[in-house]
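User:
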Amino acid sequence: MKRSKRITFGVRIPVEGWVPISSHHPNFDYFLRLAQTAERLGFDFILAADHLLNWIGSTPKKAALDQYLSLETYESWTVMSALAAMTSKVKLSNIVLCNLFRAPSLLAKMASTLDAVSGGRFVMSIGAGWLREECRRYGLDWFPYKERIERLRESIQVMKALWTEEKANFSGKYYRLEEAILEPKPITKPHPPIWLGGASENIMRIVAEEAGGWDVGLAGSPQAVKAKIQGLKEYCDKVSRNPDTIKISHSCMVVLSHREDESRKLVKAKARDLNATIESFMERHLVGSPGQMAARMNEYAEAGVRHFTLYFDRDLRNLNVFASEVIPRICS
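Assistant: Predicted structure:
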């Protein structure tokens, strides 16, 4: 796959707090300072995770203990809407929306409104959902994996219909529209970009058929990401889709330090709270000095990544260092 003319960079808004878990609580004043700092420094996106319970420490196979789930977590759409009014250039997105939380027709309306009030800055990033405990405790329906995938596909089709048709009709297995009117339409034409999150082959197929971006952060190393991209390219060939029209994204944490002992200590603490091994953490995330990070990111860029979503620690000075000492070294 061809490399993009320009790689983009996004900053994750920590609506769930920080990893490792600290005594600092997430709050909107910090979110605002972070968003405005990111915009001033030239980052392209701000993004927030979409959860009802705190996800830190949970995996798709096992939810974390209540002491983790009960940590403060802000609702992502509300936060991003508020930040839209207090920024002017950065694109607004999520990492990623859970398809089970909102009906696709309502989400289409929310998205068109946010796109309008932000001046066309919204990017729809969505996934099938993975943390079952949220649905159980909030009384929301949870479905087997195959059905969640099918619902995600239909949701995208519903939103596209509402964004582009004067009166939308849709009759699917899970959702339907009957002469549905959505006005105003999004500013972005033909509709806001749609990115999907998740590294499975099922998600890859929906990306090839319906989406304009794919976050493959869960895949891990540059080599694993390259293999995923090759699989996407092969499936795009089957459906007559140009793979160069799909933006590949990698989401990762940033452990920025010139001292190896300090980096090692932080990695150990983060892996512990994420319920992950140190090896798996090192495969996916960025660790070390600015030069080491740039070298690792260039490996991802060489594999085909054209966007990075970055999860910084609480110190805002890390953004300045990253913007001045890492980004200029990334090949584009």
